[in-house]
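During the second year of the project, the team shifted from modelling isolated chains to modelling whole assemblies. The rationale, set out in the original proposal, was that interfaces cannot be judged from single-chain predictions alone. As a representative example for this report, we include one of the complexes processed in the last quarter. Its constituent sequences, exactly as entered into the pipeline, are reproduced here:
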Amino acid sequence: MADPWNGLATEAFFKQPTPDLVRHLLGMICVRDSPGGRTAGRIVEVEMYQGPWDKAAHSYGGRVTERTRVMYGPPGFAYVYFVYGMHYCLNVVSGAPGHPEAILIRALEPVDGIEMMMQRRHIDATHGQRSLCQLTNGPGKLTQALGITREDNGLAFFDSPLKLYHDQDPLPSAQIATGPRINVGYAEEAANFPWRYWVKGHSCLSAKGSPQKTKT
DNA sequence: ATAATGATTGGC
DNA sequence: CCAATCATTATT
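Output from the structure prediction step:
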């Protein structure tokens, strides 16, 4: 038997309940292979969206549209949508078929294909941790850096150019923080659900996702 | 057919 | 703080 915490995620891995999967995605490696090469990053910030009763979700109320159709299918596939007329966002579909749940990937720590990411993001080569993080520390930034577009909608994370890998054991709870999701103020009571999860203290968290630093 | 708006980012 | 920019969605 393969070690479930080492290597390409299996189709079965995605069948766990969304509240479990969202924590297990933290620390995993998201990979996008393209003819030009591989780009990849470690997942450090995510948000879950749960089906018909989550007013922040595109699938709120059980709406089935062309855009949200993939959310109603089996878990482990990509839900990619276009927002604000200029950005793509990448989600991992979760939940059993008929349960329109998904997990938005909000920030990555760059791991592979740095040069290609810099070209795609139109960022000049500079060095240091801070400049690396700006490649992928936001949901729109990471799709641009990995070259993810609407063409990726519906791809299987366990069998396609878009992949999720384990290279370490799941993060312990002590290293995971939670809080309200970003930019869902329209969602009334759901706006306050603590359904954003991030790696505590990580330097590549999204700008709005980074807890404000307090002075001592 | 038309109007409103967004699971964001970057610039001022 | 606010403009950019257009697909998606709901409404007429």
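The helical segments of chain A are 18-25, 114-121, 129-133, 139-146. Residues 78 and 154 of chain A are 5 Å apart (CA to CA).
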